[in-house]
Every structure is written in structure tokens, then in C-alpha cells.
Amino acid sequence: MSETPIIKIKSEPEIIRIIAKRKGDVSIETINLRIIMANLWWEGSPELETFFNVMELKIKKALNEVYPHEKMSIDYNYSADDALEDASKILVKITDIKADGVDIDIGGRFITLDGTDSRGFFKKMTSFRRKFTKEIRKEI
């Protein structure tokens, strides 16, 4: 069994599973996107920022169950297919995770958030001008 902790992320349209493994220990955390997004819509909270906070805390919780640690640092970037308020697809790529300075192996780095595309024809045709990518580094 490997001494190095492993985080694996499985992204499905409605559920994201975060699996942490080390030696024989396994921890599974799930994020139900429907419940979270409905709750955020109801409260009027910023959806993306809150989703990222939930994602980071779920990763930390899963990792902490198999590899107890004080500080976790996570680097990820996200890109949208249009300006954020008009985007129908957001891709999150987790680039690095460290727990107390120890590198964590990452499997399944990508999370895709898909929505309905209600943009008009011309807005879709010119969306390449508004695409963007943002990098985030956090320590929890």
C-alpha cells in the first residue's frame, strides 16, 4: 500500500465524488450539486464562490480522514465558455494539493459544471472574446 495520500475526483452532472485513499483507508465525500445550487439560488448567495468553498472543505475533510493534517493548500483554475454571468459550462482543474507540505497525488483533476445554454446565436458566435481562466490558490 502506498504511503502517499491520493485524492480522486469523479464529476457527474448532478454529483461530485471526492475519494481520498492512503494505505488501506478510504474516505468518500459527495457534493450534491442540485441541492447546493437550489439552496444558493433561494438564498441569493454567489453560486460559484460558495461552490468552491464547499469543494475545498469536502476535499480537506476527505483527506483529513485518511491523512490527518493541520493545513492544506490547494491550487486550481477554472475557465468558462463565456462571461461568467452567461456561461453554460465551467471547467475546474485542480492542479496541486498539499497537506502540511506533503504533495498529494491527484487522480481525476477535472470537474465540469454544465448548465443550459440560453444564449442567442450571436452571443454564442462571439463568446470566444469573453472566455476567461482564473487561477486560485488557497490555504485551509
How would you characterize the overall build of this protein?
The protein is of the alpha+beta class and 140 residues long. It has one domain (6-139). Helices cover 26% and strands 43% of the residues. The chain has 3 helices and 9 strands, in the order βββααβββββαβ. Strand 5 (89-99) and strand 6 (102-103) form a beta hairpin. The model has no long low-confidence stretch (mean pLDDT 87).
**Share in β-strands:** 35-45%
How can the largest sheet be summarized? 5 strands, antiparallel
Mean of residue pLDDT values: 87
Question: Which residues sit in consecutive blocks of at least 5 with pLDDT less than 50?
Answer: none
Helicity, in percent?
25-40%
Q: Rg to the nearest angstrom?
A: 16 Å
| Tertiary shape | elongated
Distance between the termini: 27 Å
Oligomer: single chain
Order of helices and strands: EEEHHEEEEEHE
* DSSP strand count: 9
Total number of helical segments?
3
Structural class of the secondary structure composition?
A: alpha+beta
Query: How many domains would you count in the coordinates?
Result: 1
Please give a quick description of this structure.
This protein has helices at 33-43, 47-66, 121-125; strands spanning 6-11, 15-22, 25-32, 72-80, 89-99, 102-103, 105-107, 110-114, 132-139. The chain has 140 residues and is of the alpha+beta class. It has one domain (6-139).
